[in-house]
Structure formats: structure tokens, C-alpha cells
Amino acid sequence: MKKQQIAPTKKTFTNLPMWGAVLTAIILAMPMRGYTHETNAPPGAAANQTPQAQGTNAQAGPVMEQAALDELKRMSAALSGAKSFTCKTRSTTEVPAPKTGQFITLIGNSEVAMLRPNKLKVQVAGEVPNFDFYYDGTNIAAYAPQNKVYSIAKAPGTIDEMFKNLEEKTGIELPAADLLSGDPYTELTKNLTSAFVVDKPTLDGVPCVHLAFVSPGIHWQIWIDAGKSALPQRFAVTYADVPNFPRRMVDLSNWNLHPNLTDKDFVFQAPSDAKQIEFLAPTPTGRQKGR
CATH assignment of 22-35+62-276? Predict the structure, then answer.
């Protein structure tokens, strides 16, 4: 899983006054069962701690449970095997306020549509910067309806290649890139240091398996449908090496693995009153030029 940096200027796609979460709160985000199977944890135990045996001073440490990896692989197979899908997300993201630096919580909503191998559309609304993102297999386009501006650029021919090109050329990182890739399991388990099953709760009426993982600088959790669909229902991320440990949580709903999508759904049509501007190239530090 790739780290999504919490910086006010990291992932804007234009030179608009977009502060805070910018594109980090776009689509989805990533994801843990905090306790080992061998030991029953107390109900209030922290998810990133290994429960201590009674009468001992056992220290928390990395755990790598095959059961957690198997569930993650099951989810990955469900996502990569879907030729198309649509879903909705609701995210809460902690970001520093520009005036005081105090961490505040922004709420965003998005609608996602994907058609493999090379079509993607994301529409973002809420307290986060509102925008529409299109990828039609040839071009990427980002449109900010509140500012009536848009940017268009050429893109590679597959979703995986597009994600890499998007970040290199524009500095935009889509938090859902790992889930939307052709092989989510491989992407999510890169540099993984810990994995375990937390519990098997029911989330909004859906029986789930709650998993917990640790990668360098990131503690993440994911709730996966325990039934046949194996689709992600929620994920949460804590950025452990960022001051104040900012967090993000995303709920995913309204999954449809057989939507009625056509190529036209992913083609951006610029409104007549919108102005075209260029994507800003990122600097070596990740801050886009001109910011």
C-alpha cells in the first residue's frame, strides 16, 4: 500500500485555491484484525496492539497471520475479476486547517465507475475539493465545476499504466489506485510488516471480516464482506509518521458488478462556459510547480 501524504499542496490538479485534503480525499483509501487467534483480546484493546497474556509484560510486535492474507487475497480476486463496477464512497479525512494548523475533519462523497481495461470515472463532492475525473483509455481529464476550469492530458492505454503516469506527470495520486489496479493483492502487500484478523463484525447489516495491516509509516484496516462477494465495505488509515497521526476512514456502498456502462460514459465533454488550464507538473519534493 502506498502512503498518501497529508499535505495541503501535495495532490492538487490545477493552480486553484484547493487546500487541505485536496485529492487525498477523493475516492477510496486503505485499510485490520487487531488480535491474534490464539489469545482473546479484551473488548477495548487497541487494534495495533498484540494482547498481553495475563500476568506477563509481553510487548506488542509484528504479527503475520495467513488468515488475514487469505481474506485480502479473496477480496483482491473479487475486484480484479470484475470487468466493470460502480460504487459510492463516504470519507472522513483529517487535515491541518490552513489558518491554525489544527487538525479538522472533512467529509467527502464520491461515485466511482470503472470499465476494464482502460475506463475510469470519479465524481467527488462534499467538503473536500469538488471535481470530476475522467479516463477514457486515451486521455485523462479533471474538471472543477465550482471554478469552471478543466485540464486534459494524454494517458497510457491501461488503468495501471495511467495511475503511474498520472502521478509522475501531474502529482495526482488516487487513494483508490491499489484497489482499482489489476492485482490489488500485490499492491497492498508491498512492504507489509504485519497482518492479522481483528474480528468478524456486522457492518451496516453486512457480516464482515475486519483485518489490520502495517506498512512503513502506515497502519491500515479494512472490513471485507464475509459472504460470497468479498467486496470491501470500509477501510481506515492512520499515518503513523505524520505529526498528530492524521486518519482517514472510507465507507464503500452500492456496489454493482454488472452496471450498464458504455465507452461514452467515460468521455469528458467540456462545458461551454468552462476554461481549459494546464495540469501543473510536480516538483521533486511532490509540491506542484506554481504553488
Answer: 2.50.20.10
